Q: What sequence folds into this?
């Protein structure tokens, strides 16, 4: 309790990049989110020398900031570990839109800001089952191939929670923290409505005084993320080094392999060399780095398939305010609940519903209603926005504080949904995305089911239009068996290159019905084992 | 566990007060000593105060400030509370100010506070918590005659408070910074006397021990939170919606 948290260097002395460039590493890991952090840890623990190259800062270990979208200064964002630039979306039928997405850039990546929700996907998310045909025919590694790594990832992330009563997936080994009486009542009410709630799976060690740290950096090694469960334990092995504030400019390609990465640090370029390279810069920036690495191919590195940056998926989020039944105590903010009653319906892919960890009172609902009104023609009607305030006030007086649930809906891969570096500024991810009719139809079904099943409580959808979750990008370097339609092979090694691996959400050919973090972590450990075995075998031969 | 930790922290508080040799600074130092806190006082000239580690340094000089804090860290430990109280009120017509005299006032009233913040912040950041109080006035709102350097520098000190919150508030919510207007002042002919420094010091000591992150950046006037006046419409709206601001009293 009183022992100091494992600390990272707060600032980087000049010459760290020069030191990193002076030697050859076993593996260079680009990016330190859940994927980069966990694979780096696994490789270092298997005895390999690992260099983490991180675009953002190490930060101070006592920081507790939320990921802000109201701060636009590049350097101020960078200092806080936020992705420093906006992203630009070109969504079918809409004008180009630039905004700050919930993306991190710093040690731990986006994961230091996540809500610590880490659940296993279902078998049908990865492969065809009796009930469900997989849209890609199945991942090149099926559910059984991933199963041991889900268990290992749960251990690495200290996952606690409860078994989903609807599935045969095992529950986490660690029990969830006790529920409050109001939460118990909410669980009972939902069960009475025929639903099957269970304790959400969370990556929190729940150290004494745990403050939940949803959406913000955790000042102690309590929330388990790419930093606390990846980079920090990796550094403790003594075989890993961290190079923060160091943006990768280019992967330097030789004959069938990557020879070095060109980075920018301390105002000059360095070439960093290794036997193998792991790309884990996130599903927007990993493909963009390949597309910018045009030394050998104008179409980008590892891009003979033309699929780099394509197959981009986000989840769609449906937010619902749920008020307690008459006579039930007010639950307010809770993150305790998950349910998979809407995960699939008649063979159609929907997704997980969770409590969001926020309560909503009339002020937020009023603000929300006003925001919705501002986006419609109603905004021109004088007084409408004041009406929204009054409506929300009446609602709040009658219903009290609501718990917010968020349902996520699986997005499916399309070749035309893609990311590329923005022509104006390569640091800005430019996203081309069309919301497909089948996604709209599944969304309508999801909302209809939620309305039916939650209806006897009091619920209100908090969004009208489809709400893409820009914090959940995936799929842009899909793994597959066919080099013509995928970028990576089953080992998450680039088809085109002998020593380039990927360990972030880019590898996913489909986005699944759950938050991606657990699967990113499991895959990172899996690819780490493959790469460690390969490099050790080469060593033994050479030795 | 949690309470135990807070108690432990309370006992481990180490406060530094500038210009602790007389008046409000001295009373603040003594009030904190009475609360069982280790206190160091900094002043330009040697002084004595019961239970206070007296350090001689000119806060205008960064090197002297660094030496003073080095000595405090060695003899008491790492400061957890800083009260920037040192100020000068030259009572000088602007026609008599020289560039040097004007900037000297700024260097003490603003520079002195920054020099001390610069000394305490690294350890506060490493710990994720700390307490800084800047003793200010409303002089910047409507400068009085003979107070050009004073009003400008004290106004700038209020901006420094807000700048500290802008740079640190989101990252280190445990570092709590406030403006405090004690209502005391140096007696001057023709101006009614201010609050008794001993009385003000009791409020200041309580304020120095408040650690709630939500109060960071708020302005305290004498013994209570000072809210900026809101319009009649705003007040009616707040009343209708039942969200009248809650004022903190010390």
A:
């Amino acid at each position: 309790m009183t022992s100091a948290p494992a600390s990272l260097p707060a600032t980087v002395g000049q010459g760290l990049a020069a030191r990193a460039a002076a030697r050859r590493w076993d593996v260079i890991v680009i990016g330190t989110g859940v994927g980069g952090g966990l694979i780096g840890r696994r490789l270092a623990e298997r005895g390999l020398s690992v260099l983490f190259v991180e675009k953002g800062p190490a930060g101070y270990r006592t920081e507790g900031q939320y990921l802000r979208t109201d701060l636009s200064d590049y350097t101020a964002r960078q200092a806080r570990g936020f992705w420093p630039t906006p992203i630009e979306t070109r969504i079918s039928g809409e004008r180009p839109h630039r905004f700050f997405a919930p993306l991190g850039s710093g040690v731990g990546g986006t994961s230091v800001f996540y809500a610590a929700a880490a659940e296993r996907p279902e078998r049908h998310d990865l492969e065809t089952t009796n009930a469900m045909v997989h849209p890609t025919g199945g991942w090149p590694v099926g559910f059984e191939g991933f199963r041991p790594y889900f268990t290992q990832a749960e251990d690495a992330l200290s996952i606690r929670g409860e078994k989903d009563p609807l599935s045969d997936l095992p529950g986490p080994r660690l029990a969830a923290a006790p529920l409050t009486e109001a939460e118990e009542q909410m669980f009972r009410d939902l069960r009475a409505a025929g639903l099957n709630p269970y304790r959400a799976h969370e990556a929190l060690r729940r150290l004494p005084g745990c403050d939940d740290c949803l959406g913000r950096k955790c000042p102690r090694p309590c929330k388990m993320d790419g930093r606390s469960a990846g980079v920090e334990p990796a550094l403790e092995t003594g075989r890993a080094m961290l190079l923060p504030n160091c943006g990768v400019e280019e992967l330097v390609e030789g004959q069938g392999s990557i020879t070095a990465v060109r980075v920018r640090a301390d105002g000059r370029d360095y070439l960093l060399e290794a036997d193998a390279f792991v790309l884990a810069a996130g599903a927007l920036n990993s493909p963009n780095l390949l597309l910018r690495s045009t030394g050998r191919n104008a179409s980008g590195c590892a891009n003979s398939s033309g699929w780099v940056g394509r197959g981009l998926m986000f989840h769609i989020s449906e937010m619902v305010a749920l008020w307690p039944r008459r006579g039930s105590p007010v639950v307010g903010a809770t993150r305790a609940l998950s349910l998979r009653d809407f995960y699939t319906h008649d063979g159609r892919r929907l997704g997980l519903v969770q409590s969001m960890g926020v309560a909503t009172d009339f002020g937020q609902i009023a603000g929300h209603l006003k925001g919705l009104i501002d986006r419609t023609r109603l905004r021109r009607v004088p007084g409408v926005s004041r009406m929204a305030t009054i409506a929300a006030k009446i609602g709040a007086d009658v219903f009290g504080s609501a718990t917010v649930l968020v349902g996520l809906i699986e997005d499916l891969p399309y070749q035309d949904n893609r990311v590329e570096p923005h022509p104006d500024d390569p640091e800005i991810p430019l996203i081309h995305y069309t919301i497909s009719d089948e996604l709209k139809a599944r969304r309508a079904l999801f909302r209809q089911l939620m309305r039916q099943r939650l209806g006897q409580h009091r619920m209100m959808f908090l969004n009208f239009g489809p709400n893409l979750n820009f914090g959940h990008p995936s799929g842009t370097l899909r793994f597959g068996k066919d080099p013509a339609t995928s970028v990576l092979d089953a080992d998450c090694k680039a088809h085109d290159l002998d020593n380039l691996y990927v360990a972030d959400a880019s590898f996913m050919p489909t986005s699944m019905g759950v938050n991606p973090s657990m699967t990113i972590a499991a895959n990172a450990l899996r690819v780490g084992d493959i790469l460690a075995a390969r490099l050790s075998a080469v060593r033994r031969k050479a030795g | 566990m949690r309470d135990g930790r807070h108690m432990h922290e309370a006992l481990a508080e180490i406060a530094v007060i500038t210009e602790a040799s007389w008046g409000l600074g001295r009373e603040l130092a003594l009030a904190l000593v009475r609360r069982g806190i280790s206190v160091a006082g900094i002043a330009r000239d040697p002084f004595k105060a019961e239970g206070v580690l007296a350090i001689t340094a000119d806060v205008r000089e960064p090197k002297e400030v660094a030496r003073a804090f080095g000595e405090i860290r060695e003899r008491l430990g790492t400061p957890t509370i800083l009260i920037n109280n040192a100020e000068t009120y030259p009572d000088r017509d602007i026609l008599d100010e020289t560039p040097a005299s004007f900037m000297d006032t700024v260097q003490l009233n603003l520079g002195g506070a920054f020099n001390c913040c610069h000394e305490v912040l690294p350890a506060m950041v490493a710990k994720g918590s700390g307490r800084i109080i800047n003793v200010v006035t409303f002089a910047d709102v409507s400068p009085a005659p003979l107070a050009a350097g004073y009003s400008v520098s004290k106004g700038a000190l209020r901006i420094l408070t807000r700048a500290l919150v802008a740079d640190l508030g989101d990252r280190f919510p445990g570092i709590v910074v406030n403006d405090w207007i004690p209502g005391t002042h140096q007696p001057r002919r023709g101006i009614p006397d201010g609050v008794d420094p001993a009385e003000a010091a009791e409020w200041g000591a309580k304020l120095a021990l408040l650690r709630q992150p939500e109060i960071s950046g708020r302005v305290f006037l004498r013994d209570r939170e000072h809210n900026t006046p809101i319009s009649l419409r705003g007040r009616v709206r707040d009343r209708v919606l039942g969200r009248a601001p809650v004022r903190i009293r010390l």
Summary: The radius of gyration of chain A is 23 Å. The domain at 16-361+400-542 of chain A is CATH 3.50.50.60 (FAD/NAD(P)-binding domain). The first strand of chain A starts at residue 24 and ends at 30. The CA atoms of residues 378 and 384 of chain A lie 7 Å apart.
